[in-house]
Write a structure and sequence with these properties.
about 40% helix, Transferase(Phosphotransferase), domain 1, 4 strands, about 160 residues, 4 helices, elongated, alpha+beta, two-stranded antiparallel sheet
Length: about 160
């Protein structure tokens, strides 16, 4: 960790540096300085606040999908759940975007086979490859991938 790898000028707990792992992956590392009991409490509070925001995003997206699948009439599928399609408002409340409203659950248009329209997404459920029919479970699978990203802090 030297000045060349410093990302910012530092904050309450120390500077952030970019480090290259042997695998070639870049990670951000915060070098803690002057960590006393007060600083330790403040750091724990900051981490707890971030965890509450991660949790708020997960619950909000789950509620949005439940609304589309069960409460909205006619029932809808999102069919494109991924982290890029979850926007946050100023209160960190998630908003689902970019869903395929043209496919209504139970309608003839929905029952038609799905072209390879989601081939560019790594969030697609494995059964999409052979069933060619969108289901609520496929949205749930994609939501699970988003949860893994939230928990691990890594892209799928």
């Amino acid at each position: 960790m030297d000045e060349k790898s410093a990302v910012g000028s530092g904050g309450a707990f120390g500077r952030v540096y970019t480090i290259s792992l042997p695998s070639g992956e870049l990670v951000a590392v915060k070098k803690l300085v002057n960590i006393g009991s007060q600083t330790s409490k403040a750091l724990k509070a900051e981490v707890k606040t971030l965890a509450k925001i991660r949790l708020r995003i997960a619950i909000g997206v789950a509620q949005g999908l439940a609304y589309l699948h069960k409460d909205y009439v006619p029932h809808l599928l999102h069919r494109n759940v991924k982290s890029k399609n979850i926007l946050l408002d100023t209160d960190f409340e998630p908003k689902l975007t970019d869903f395929a409203l043209d496919r209504l659950v139970g309608e003839a248009a929905f029952r038609s086979t799905i072209a390879s329209e989601s081939a560019d997404s790594c969030y697609s459920a494995p059964e999409l490859g052979y069933s060619k029919k969108a289901t609520e479970q496929m949205d749930v699978y994609s939501f699970g991938v988003v949860l893994l990203e939230l928990i691990t802090g890594r892209q799928a």
